[in-house]
């Protein structure tokens, strides 16, 4: 009996990991498509030249894919029944959270040395894209629930592989954005060394790396990972 | 004094040994820095003497008495005009003629070979008019140094002692100066380095920026736009064109790139065009200032870097013979005396070059004998000038060996005598003539060799030795800081052994050197002593440490902090990052702060008890319920980031980034126009002063240290406001001095001299008072009330040892708190209690904070007015950081106490950040020279140490403040404990009730800093560890600087970026280490005073 439940758990875990992997693959695909598809419709589109356009498109497509995944996969099956008005309120709350996170990221960038007045739009769009990579998945997975967020981002706080991968991708996005700031002072004179392009690219690479690596990491450590609720 | 029992003596000895040990570690670092400096920074004394036409270089009549002629000085001019084409980094083989290979060898296909075809053609078709030389260049082969050499004829070194650090202008005698004083018109075009070197020397100039090495064409095209029109206009006597394209092409692509071929071909066309336009009275010089390595860089002393091309061409026949098969090798500075004499100018005073004799032979058709005599006379004038220089130089310094000088002197006397004899007997002495020429050349070469030996050698051995010594010292700091907190740390043997060994090593080395008769070198001696004392320590440490613990514990720094430190160190190796350090440091500091906050959250360590410990002066003081405790650290972090960003507004731009604009707030208020804005700013500055003062007083009052009638407290109450008043008055005078009515001018001048001195005097008086009576505790009569006796009853007499005293002290302290509690309860019966009674619990930090404030005021005075806002931010920032750090450190009950690495790293980062936000940059032109005149508006007369001290205090103010304040890192967690233990007893749900404190808890009253006194051994060990860790963090920085400077000694920016950075970092290290020792000594002084205070208290109770 005991053994059976263990094997059942592990197969469930394996299917879960597979689902996670496909979901992440979809997200990666959305990032890649957002860099290549628009050039068919827009003239002279390139990541560096029309960076802001790319930022917007990438942000929208990643958000859309996340929403679709949320609706299709439903990783957190909430037992609570909810009315439509409740859903609308929840959605509005999510929007507010997203905006709040954009603004707070913007403030943090300025505190870290981003120019205050010049390049406001660029800085803000960087905040938007970083929010897309971090806040949107959090909102999809955990809902507008700060306590759950704080729980997920603390030691031994995760309770499913979804949350675990969320943790990894979010941290990877942050680290990517952080590392992206380093080439800016160098005198190589490359076009991508301009604020905030290197940071947005860093965040994107970090996000993609997190998406790719987190299922692999979870798969490798599936024996050690035990979640309280699973 | 029965009280000085063995325990007390033991602890006193321990304190002294901690201080001595730290001082010894500092000395190790100093020895390493000195050794490296002696190998890296070449030094030379700059003489300001000038040659002049009227004053011949030596006795004896000048040949042929040309002095009457116009335009002639020491010799008659052969050319009235000269075109000097400097092609930066024109290596010799770039210009080398390519011989047709008879043996069927394929012609060389390297892109840089044979591209200067016009040179080859001229050399073949007009052999008597042109010459190509292989010019031997003296390192350092950087452009600015080479330009100095090419105009002064001397060997440039990095630190030309006596030079004006504020600008690069050459103060020594040079060709440009001589040309100017002879009234020649100089037109310059090209590299803007010349602008810095010779300000205002050119009648017409077209400067182009030299910084961007990726840009191959701007400078060259700019020159070409002006070159031929200027030349045709004829309004010039000397035309200098400095092309940079070849050099930049080398830096960008290397010499083996097709682009180099294009660039050289372009230069070839330039030379071709010039030769066509040349008139008969004009000399054309084409020269490279240095070569380049295979990778296209330069700066060092490899063969490829030190061989440059030198090409001379005159439309009239100049040379008696045809060019040799292989071009002659000559020192590049030979050009200086040659040009001077050819143009009829005096040779620059400090020249040590030798004239190219064949240019003075009088052309193809002259008689062989008279031609040889003319060459000898040019050499003789040259030798007289060099001899005069050697004489003057050796009178000013002791650089040269006496025997060497004497040998040279004899050589010169003999040659000179022979020459004079020759002049008297001109007929038929061909043999003598040859001998005289050879003697003169021998003298000149000997003199040059002596100078090179003493001025222009990187000593790689010394550089490596210095770096190794620094690395060993860092390793020692790491090792000892880990070891210090273990109970088995052998204080005495550790202290005595290194000192004993060091002295022994020094004596043995000195003896050896003395017996073998070598010259004693203090630097080498110090290094040997340092190594001699280091080795036994490491050996003993290995013996005591190695077997017992794994080696991994040798690298105890937590991984994120290690990563951050490594990033910071790696940044020293990139000139871009050194230039951008003002931005990179706040970024790293911000990262560290966020890391701390996130770590606190991640570990779940945001304990509710920490919430209420924050004093009320911070703007982010939490007042809410403990459920906000999660955001407490976050708020501290955001506050810190905000302060850092605000301080970053006061930045000064490095000169390398032209797009950047320095903050206008760094200028003094006196430079502002517009009275209203000025008044507002003045108000803001005074407001910052008042806020600083109020914050410190509030803090002291919060911990109850403002109650006692002790002199330091009285000083804080009355002296500090007086100092603030004096500062404000001085600012008012300084900013409005221009507007004062004439009658009051004298008064204003007097006051602006007296006020700063008065403030400094007050600060010094305050510090002396603090050192005299550092214990700011109010002794109440109640302290000896009957209940105290009950506490002390276990003792049937005065405690006889320190151990007894240590046992008694916390009890007395607890009892005193009870007393105060009772008294306060009586006076203020309701409402939550303040912690005002715990003054003894903050006795160390109170002394530290007072000392820091007293130090800050004079330092503030040395800066411009608006920097006071930065000082306010500095205090606020360190206050917030200390709280944030304390939030992560649980107070260990019995000890050992440790200071975590992140605390020390953040502290050091903050010191660097404040260095930049007070308007400094690690380059010499950015030094705030005006600081030398604060309090001395009339200047200093001949004294140099006082202005140096003032400027140094201005430059390294942040280093000093943070180093002195370093012990706060150890003390603050204890300070934050003030209500901690009590809170811990309550389950998280009952915080509301916790406000009403039950009386039975008084035994759990926080001991705060008295915990340190409970375990004095651990206290000393913690201080030692703190000092070692801080020295480690600073020492690794200086090690990185040293490695960067030695590895990148060929780098384009080595003299512009890396060497100044090293000097600033080294001086900063010295200031920081001294400050650290002072801070730790202050804590120990307070500790001693607390001991004696308790002793008196106990004694008074025994009576
Ligand atoms: Zn050069
Ligand atoms: Zn160069």
TrEMBL record, chain A:
GO terms for cellular component: endoplasmic reticulum membrane. InterPro entries: GPI_biosynthesis_protein_Pig-F. It is found in: Endoplasmic reticulum membrane. It comes from the Eukaryota. Keywords: Endoplasmic reticulum, GPI-anchor biosynthesis, Membrane, Transmembrane, Transmembrane helix. It holds the Pfam family PIG-F. The chain crosses the membrane at residues 21-42, 54-73, 94-117, 123-143, 164-182, 194-219. It is a multi-pass membrane protein. Its main location: endoplasmic reticulum. Pathway: Glycolipid biosynthesis; glycosylphosphatidylinositol-anchor biosynthesis. GO terms for biological process: GPI anchor biosynthetic process. This is Phosphatidylinositol glycan anchor biosynthesis class F. It comes from Oryctolagus cuniculus. The gene is PIGF.
Automatic annotation (TrEMBL), chain B:
It is found in: Endoplasmic reticulum membrane. InterPro entries: Alkaline_phosphatase_core_sf, Phosphodiest/P_Trfase, PIG-O_N, PIGO/GPI13. GO terms for molecular function: mannose-ethanolamine phosphotransferase activity. Pfam families: Phosphodiest. It comes from the Eukaryota. The chain crosses the membrane at residues 20-42, 467-485, 491-513, 520-539, 559-579, 680-700, 715-734, 746-772, 843-862, 869-891, 956-975, 1030-1050, 1062-1084. Pathway: Glycolipid biosynthesis; glycosylphosphatidylinositol-anchor biosynthesis. Keywords: Endoplasmic reticulum, Glycoprotein, GPI-anchor biosynthesis, Membrane, Transferase, Transmembrane, Transmembrane helix. The keyword Transferase applies. It is a multi-pass membrane protein. Residues 988-998 have a biased composition (Basic and acidic residues). One of its GO terms (cellular component) is endoplasmic reticulum membrane. Coiled coil: none annotated. GO terms for biological process: GPI anchor biosynthetic process. Residues 981-1003 are annotated as: Disordered. Belongs to the PIGG/PIGN/PIGO family. PIGO subfamily. This is GPI ethanolamine phosphate transferase 3, catalytic subunit.
């Amino acid at each position: 009996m005991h053994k059976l439940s263990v094997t059942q758990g592990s197969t469930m875990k394996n299917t879960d990991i597979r689902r996670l992997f496909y979901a992440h693959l979809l997200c990666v695909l959305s990032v890649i498509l957002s860099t290549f598809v628009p050039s068919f419709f827009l003239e002279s589109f390139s990541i560096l030249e029309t960076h802001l356009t790319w930022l917007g498109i990438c942000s929208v497509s990643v958000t859309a894919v996340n929403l679709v995944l949320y609706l299709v996969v439903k990783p957190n099956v909430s037992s609570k029944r909810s009315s439509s008005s409740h859903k609308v309120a929840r959605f509005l709350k999510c929007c507010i959270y997203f905006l709040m996170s954009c603004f707070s990221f913007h403030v943090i960038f300025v505190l870290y040395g981003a120019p205050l007045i010049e390049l406001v739009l660029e800085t803000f769009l960087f905040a938007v894209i970083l929010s897309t990579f971090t806040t949107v998945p959090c909102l999809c997975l955990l809902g507008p629930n700060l306590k759950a967020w704080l729980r997920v981002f603390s030691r031994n706080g995760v309770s499913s592989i979804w949350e675990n991968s969320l943790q990894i991708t979010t941290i990877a996005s942050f680290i990517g954005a952080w590392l992206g700031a380093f080439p800016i002072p160098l005198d190589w004179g490359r076009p991508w060394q301009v604020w905030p392009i290197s940071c947005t690219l860093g965040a994107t690479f970090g996000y993609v790396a997190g998406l790719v690596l987190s299922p692999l990491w979870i798969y490798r450590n599936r024996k050690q990972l035990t979640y309280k609720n699973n | 004094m029965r009280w000085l029992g063995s325990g007390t003596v033991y602890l006193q000895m321990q304190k002294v040994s901690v201080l001595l040990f730290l001082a010894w570690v500092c000395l190790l670092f100093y020895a390493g820095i000195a050794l490296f400096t002696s190998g890296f920074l070449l030094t030379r004394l700059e003489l300001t003497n000038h040659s002049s036409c009227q004053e011949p270089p030596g006795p004896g009549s000048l040949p042929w008495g040309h002095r009457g002629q116009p335009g002639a000085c020491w010799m008659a001019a052969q050319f009235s005009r000269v075109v000097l084409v400097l092609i930066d980094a024109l290596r010799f083989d770039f210009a080398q003629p390519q011989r047709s290979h008879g043996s069927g060898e394929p012609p060389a296909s390297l892109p840089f070979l044979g591209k200067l075809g016009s040179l080859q053609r001229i050399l073949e078709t007009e052999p008597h008019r042109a010459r190509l030389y292989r010019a031997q260049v003296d390192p350092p082969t950087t452009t600015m140094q080479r330009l100095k050499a090419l105009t002064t004829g001397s060997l440039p070194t990095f630190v030309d002692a006596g030079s004006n650090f504020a600008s690069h202008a050459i103060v020594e005698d040079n060709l440009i100066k001589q040309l100017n004083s002879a009234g020649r018109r100089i037109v310059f075009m090209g590299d803007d380095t010349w602008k810095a070197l010779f300000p205002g020397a050119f009648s017409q100039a077209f400067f182009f920026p030299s910084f961007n090495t990726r840009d191959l064409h701007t400078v060259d095209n700019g020159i070409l736009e002006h070159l031929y029109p200027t030349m045709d206009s004829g309004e010039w006597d000397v035309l200098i064109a400095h092309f940079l394209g070849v050099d930049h092409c080398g830096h960008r692509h290397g010499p083996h790139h097709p682009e180099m071929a294009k660039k050289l071909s372009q230069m070839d066309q330039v030379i071709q065009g010039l030769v066509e336009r040349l008139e008969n009275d004009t000399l054309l010089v084409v020269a490279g200032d240095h070569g380049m390595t295979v990778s296209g860089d330069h700066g060092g002393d490899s063969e490829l870097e030190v061989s440059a091309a030198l090409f001379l061409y005159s439309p009239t026949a100049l040379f008696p013979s045809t060019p040799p098969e292989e071009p002659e090798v000559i020192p590049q500075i030979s050009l200086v005396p040659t040009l001077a004499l050819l143009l009829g100018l005096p040779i620059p005073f400090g020249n040590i070059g030798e004239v190219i004799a064949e240019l003075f032979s009088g052309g193809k058709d002259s008689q062989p004998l008279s031609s040889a005599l003319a060459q000898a006379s040019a050499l003789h004038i040259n030798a007289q000038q060099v001899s005069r220089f050697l004489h003057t130089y050796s009178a000013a310094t002791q650089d040269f060996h006496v025997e060497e000088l004497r040998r040279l002197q004899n050589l010169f006397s003999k040659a000179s005598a022979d020459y004079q004899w020759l002049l008297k007997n001109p007929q038929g002495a061909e043999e003598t003539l040859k001998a005289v020429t050879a003697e003169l050349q021998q003298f000149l070469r000997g003199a040059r060799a002596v100078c090179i030996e003493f001025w222009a050698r990187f000593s790689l051995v010394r550089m490596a030795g210095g770096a190794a010594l620094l690395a060993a010292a860092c390793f020692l700091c790491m090792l000892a800081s880990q070891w210090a907190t273990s109970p088995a740390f052998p204080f005495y043997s550790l202290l005595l052994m290194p000192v004993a060994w060091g002295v022994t090593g020094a004596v043995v080395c000195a003896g050896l050197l003395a017996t073998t008769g070598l010259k004693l070198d203090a630097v080498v001696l110090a290094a040997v002593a340092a190594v001699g004392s280091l080795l036994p320590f490491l050996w003993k440490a290995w013996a005591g440490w190695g077997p017992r613990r794994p080696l991994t514990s040798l690298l105890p720094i937590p991984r994120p902090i290690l990563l951050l430190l490594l990033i910071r160190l790696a940044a020293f190796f990139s000139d871009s990052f050194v230039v951008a350090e003002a931005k990179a440091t706040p970024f790293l500091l911000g990262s560290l702060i966020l890391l701390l906050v996130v770590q606190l959250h991640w570990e779940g360590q945001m304990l509710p008890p920490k919430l209420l410990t924050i004093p009320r002066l911070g703007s982010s003081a939490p007042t809410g319920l403990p459920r906000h405790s999660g955001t407490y650290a976050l708020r501290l972090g955001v506050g810190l980031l905000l302060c850092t960003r605000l301080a970053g507004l006061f930045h000064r731009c490095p000169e390398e980034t032209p797009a950047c604009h320095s903050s206008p707030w760094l200028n003094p208020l006196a430079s502002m126009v517009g009275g209203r804005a000025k008044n507002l700013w003045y108000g803001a500055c005074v407001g910052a002063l008042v806020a600083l003062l109020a914050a410190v007083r509030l803090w002291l009052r919060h911990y109850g240290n403002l109650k006692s009638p002790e002199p330091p407290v009285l000083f804080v109450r009355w002296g500090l406001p007086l100092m603030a008043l004096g500062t404000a008055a001085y600012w008012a005078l300084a900013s409005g001095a221009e507007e004062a009515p004439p009658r009051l001018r004298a008064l204003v001048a007097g006051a602006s001299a007296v006020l700063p001195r008065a403030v400094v005097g007050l600060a010094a008086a305050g510090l002396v008072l603090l050192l005299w009576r550092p214990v700011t505790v109010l002794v109440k009569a109640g302290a000896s009330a009957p209940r105290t006796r009950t506490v002390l009853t276990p003792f049937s007499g005065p405690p006889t040892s320190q151990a007894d005293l240590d046992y008694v002290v916390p009890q007395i302290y607890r009892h005193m708190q009870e007393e105060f509690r009772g008294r306060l309860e009586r006076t203020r019966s309701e409402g939550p209690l303040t912690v005002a009674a715990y003054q003894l619990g903050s006795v160390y930090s109170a002394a530290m904070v007072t000392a820091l404030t007293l130090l800050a005021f004079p330092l503030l005075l040395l800066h411009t007015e608006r920097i006071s806002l930065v000082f306010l931010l500095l205090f606020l920032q360190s206050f917030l950081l200390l709280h944030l750090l304390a939030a992560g450190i649980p107070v260990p009950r019995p000890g050992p106490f440790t200071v975590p690495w992140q605390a020390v790293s953040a502290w050091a980062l903050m010191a660097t950040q404040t260095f930049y936000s007070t308007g400094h940059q690690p380059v010499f032109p950015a030094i705030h020279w005006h600081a030398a005149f604060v309090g001395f508006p009339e200047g200093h007369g001949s004294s140099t140490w006082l202005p140096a001290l003032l400027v140094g205090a201005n430059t390294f103010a942040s280093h000093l403040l943070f180093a002195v304040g370093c012990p706060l890192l150890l003390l603050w967690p204890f300070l934050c404990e003030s209500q901690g233990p009590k809170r811990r007893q309550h389950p998280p749900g009952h915080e509301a009730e916790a406000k009403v404190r039950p009386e039975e808890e008084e035994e759990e009253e926080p001991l705060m800093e008295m915990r340190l006194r409970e375990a004095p051994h651990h206290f000393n060990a913690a201080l030692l560890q703190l000092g070692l860790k801080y020295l480690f963090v600073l020492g690794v920085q200086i090690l990185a600087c040293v490695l960067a400077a030695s590895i990148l000694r060929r780098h384009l920016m080595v003299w512009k970026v890396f060497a100044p950075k090293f000097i600033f970092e080294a001086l900063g290290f010295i200031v920081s280490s001294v400050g650290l020792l002072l801070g730790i000594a202050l804590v120990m002084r307070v500790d001693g005073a607390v001991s004696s205070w308790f002793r008196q208290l106990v004694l008074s109770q025994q009576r």
